[in-house]
Structure formats: C-alpha cells, structure tokens
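ok so i was messing around last nite and threw this chain in just to see what happens. nothing serious, just curious
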Amino acid sequence: TAFLGKGVPGYAIMTEGYHFKYHRSRDDIDLIKPELLKKTGDFVHEAVKILASEPGDFIQPMRRETYYLKYQNLINFELSPLNEVVEHHKDAKDSHVDLQLSVLEEKEGLSGDELRMDILKSLLTTSEKIKKAKGLTYYSNSSKLRGDIRQGKTTIMAGLKGINSFGDDPKWAQVLAKQGIYFVIVDDASSFFNEKELTEEGKKILKAVNESGLLLGFKGLNASQEKSLLNASKKPVILLSKDLPDEETQELIKKKKSAIGLILSQDDEPADYFEKLDEAKKSLGTEHLMIVNEQCLWGKAGKEQMLKVISEILKANYERSDISNIFSGTFLRVLNKVRGEGRPRPFAYIPF
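result:
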C-alpha cells in the first residue's frame, strides 16, 4: 500500500487453499509447508526476472497523481444529459469517475404538467437502462456509493438545470425529489432575484426547494444576491463561482453549513487555479470547499487538467482529509444535510 500511494505498482502474493490456523495464536512454524514456500518463491523470482528484462519503461508519467485520480472518490461536475451519459459509459469499468452528475433534458416547447411528465418518464426509462448497464449504478445514498465504488462502478446522480419543471408550481419540487432527482443547478437567477435580493416569488420557490430535499446550486450571483440567499435559505446551498466571495459571505457559508464550488474552467492554468483553491482552503476550510470541473473528466483534456491540479495539491502536502473533502466529501456532506440524512463517513483510500 505504501508503494501504491507513491504511484508505484505493488503486488501481494498469496497461496490458495484453506489454512485453519491463519492469524490465530496457534499459527506456528511447524504448520509451514516448505514446498509451497519454494513454489511461491520461484514464482516471484521468475516474475522479477521478466520485469527486470523488460526493455520498455512501464512506469507511467505522473504516476503518483494518477494514483490519487483513480483512488480518490472523484465527482464529475460536467453536467452532461443523463441519457447521453448512460449511452456512452454503460460499459465503463474501474473508471476514475466515481460519481457522475447528470441532468435531465427538457424538450423544447414543453411546459407545466407536460414537461414534468416527460421528465419523470425520461427518468424512469433511463433508470431501467442503468440497471442493465455493466459499469453504472444509480445513486441512492452515500453508504451505497462506497460499495459501488469498491465494485468498480460509476454512480449516476440525476438533477435539473434550472427550475422550469417546478417554478410555476413549487410543490412539484418535492415530487421530483421523491422520484430520484437530487439537485438543481441555477445559472439564470432572474426567477429568484432582483438586482440585489430575493423577490417574494424567489422566497416562495426557495422555501419549496428547502422542504423538498433537493440540493440547490447557484452560479453567477453577485455579492448581494449571495448574502440574501444564504440568509434566507433554511438548508445549505452551494455557490458556484470562479472566485472566492468576500469575508462576510464566507462567514455566512460557514454559519449555514454551505459550500463554495470553485470552478475549474477549461482555460484555467492548473497552477493559477491551485493558488485560488489554496487561498480558499486557508480562508474557509475544506469542509466548505469543492473543486468543480467544467471540462469532462472522461475526456483526455479534462483528465490531464485534473492531474496537474492534483500535482499542485501534492506539492503543497495537503492532508488526506482535505483532499477527500474538496473532491467529494464536502458535496456529499451538504447533500446529506439537505436531505436530512446522517453525515457521510469519510471515504477511505482503496489501494487494491
């Protein structure tokens, strides 16, 4: 395990068969079978000779960063349509993407009950496809997520982009949450805010979302809107931003058990992004901080960018608990708080 943590391949050799005193006080020297020791030793010796004689360099570049990418519980925040994610990744195996956030598409021209029925039908149809997929599973809680990761599966979590499906009738937020929708990301705040604060209609929608158990994320708010939202919300929220908010907003984030999702955009240089991340860590603490990627982590460019961010994190000697928080722990803590579920246990690194 110590080798794996440095990105160096490591293996353990074990013989097969039942050993009735294994790890017992009577597991003494007279139980050793010399012929098995010799056979195992010969096997290891031959394997080492093969590796030593290999002409190529089989140690991959950025091997330590790759270890953290693969064995850290990684969320892909690039919000691809749910049906496309299932189609493209149904046979994924042992992917570095552990939790994929996806959105249900809204068909053009639909509104009101027609739109809601179409969303629920799409969710049901896609859920059935996920059940049949070899490499995917659907999110239900953080405990099940840990088990699915150990099985090498990518977990799908469905959400909404915008409030078109329930803005005209807020009680539908609760219905949608009960049917397996977990979050709402809002990048057009006009339904909630005037220039500075929540409108009366916005407060009504916010109250319904708080009661539903949907996790609410806002992108592109100004400082006044952020403060108005945090003061009014009865549940934690996530603010998605390219920059750290002012000190007053940071204090509200802590008070409300909310979080800031620091956006890693396509054009960000990893070293420059890390400087902002590190500043946010020192100011907010990692319990309120998340890395939110815009480039898809399934793709080469997104993966390489994240590897370089991880490289900066490792140079700074972040604690494992801090790394866990910014990649997945903070998001799941806020989600569980919103849904009234218990605090998720910290994810352990799984070296094998």
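not much to say yet. Confidence is low (pLDDT under 50) at residues 347-352.
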